[in-house]
Amino acid sequence: MEIIVCLKQVVDPELPLREFVIDPATNRQVREGRPLVLSTYDEHALEVALQLKDRSGAKVTALTLAPRATIGDAVRLALAMGADEAVVVDDPRSPDLPGAVKARILAAAIRRIGRSDLVVCGCESADWVERVVAPLLAEELGAACVTFASRIESADGALVVRRQSEDGFHLIEARLPAVLSITSDETNRPRLPKVKDIIAAKRKPLQILPAADLATAAGETTADGVEVRSVAAPERTARCELLPGDPAEQAALLAQRLRELKLL
Amino acid sequence: MPGVLVIATAPEGTFSRSNLELVGGARALDRVLGAGVSAALLGGGGPLGAAIETLHQHGVPTVYCVDHPALGIGQADAFLVAAEAVARQAKPDLLLVGGDTVGREVAPRLAHRLGAALVTDCVELAVDAGAVVARRQVYGGRALAMHVVHRRPAVLSVKPRSLDAAEPAPVAGRVVDVTVAIDLAALPTRVREVQTEKAELGLEDAQTVVGGGRGLGGPDGFKILQELAQALGGAVGSSRPPADAGWVPISWQIGQTGKTVRPALYVAVGISGATQHVAGMAGSRTIVAINRDPEAPIFSVAHLGIVGDYREVVPALIAKVRELKGR
Predict the structure, then answer these.
(1) A30 touching chain B per CB within 8 A
(2) What is the β-pairing status of strands A85-90 and A207-210?
(3) pLDDT tens digits, one per residue of B11-62
(4) Is B192 in Cβ contact with A171 (below 8 Å)?
(5) CATH code of the region A2-213
(6) Where are chain A's structural domains?
């Protein structure tokens, strides 16, 4: 089975609030000088793909859309964790592109890569949280779609996918080719790469696809009919009042305050 | 008909509250746009009469009904085919889709098939100078993005529990039956099994929610939180790590991935305050944080905080609450 994992780097979502700054010119978070990490659920998607490889010898290709300055970081980590090949679409606009546009570019890249039975993505990105890339890729590629999947079994040219729902889970049979978005559970915690693999990954070749080459194949890659007019961090009105004392005193103060607020 | 089309779902005849949230959003938009509200009612495996009546009772005159046995729980591919068929017949300007398990799969694909603009997980919908404006949480709830939708049609998916459910407003109704050929065997996915976990009763409706995080150290920590919730008259939820680790069912998870709660009182115990979690509870009226780490980001969203070991604080709090409540 040929598996493609779509990966994206984001500014570390757990940076302290004071380092979280929106650039009013782009309506996006300022990235300069901030640590970049793999978007949380993308790591789980990678882990799911690598487990399929461990079990049944699938080939795993890591694919990312990234500006030249950070090219390779995401896929190098994927190579260190066990991905076989890495493809980077070099696009300076990529951090600011809407998901619908990214999906078209990724679909063009996947067609260029060639045969793929399964494409996996994170269920949502830690920054823009649109949750659209996997379903739109499925449409672009004419593939089956399951989102918020946590476990995959492969059998007889089809998949059995565990999809998380509001109140439990669904077991879904999906035909190949398929595009799945992956959420986390206890079975897909990302593995830690070994130091020697991190070093080896630095020497592995990356296939670079200039976005401009894919643009024609992807069709319209700018307008999507939706304008981002503003992105604003809400004023934090809450100022936390820390309750002093030993645990018994703290608990008594809290109960008293809750009563004053008519919450008790 | 132009205007706003609500994609309402009733798998096995069950009509959930989130449908009425979509109707509430559609009617609010229509008060400005004025081109009318209609609904697609997609369901099967159970009678749809009550759902149709509910829509009429809540201000939706025209209901396009697709009644097909393939429209069962979780069968997203079938809902997509049915929604597309109604959209092509009704030709609405705007389509509102719920952000539930099925809606998350259907909304983007429906937009793709209709060549429509797309905004997902909207928490607020409005009209500004004739244009539809949708707001959504980004960066784990640290910011709110305002999108202006220029293209028609547009598909807007709505985050559950974000819009107010429609108030009753009975109207004379009509039903347009739409026949759609859906061959379950030909669809690329099929639901084999639906498993429902024991969810904390009414987590999303509870006026008090006690949330537990990684700092509880294990599943046993949740037992004492249940006691606290019981004393306060509320429900227990969790952040992502306990759900991932299997300490609690996934259905307890509150956050960007998981449920959204906005109770009068939220007590976060052993929760660091990762943006992922905060996105699902920041709308709570009063937030209390109990955490050992004074630097934990949860204290930047909390109103009242206790720096301490929950193993000591929570039992003392339970005793105090019981005492004050006279029990």
Answers:
(1) no
(2) parallel
(3) 988 999 999 999 999 999 999 999 999 999 999 988 999 999 999 999 999 9
(4) yes
(5) 3.40.50.620
(6) 2-213
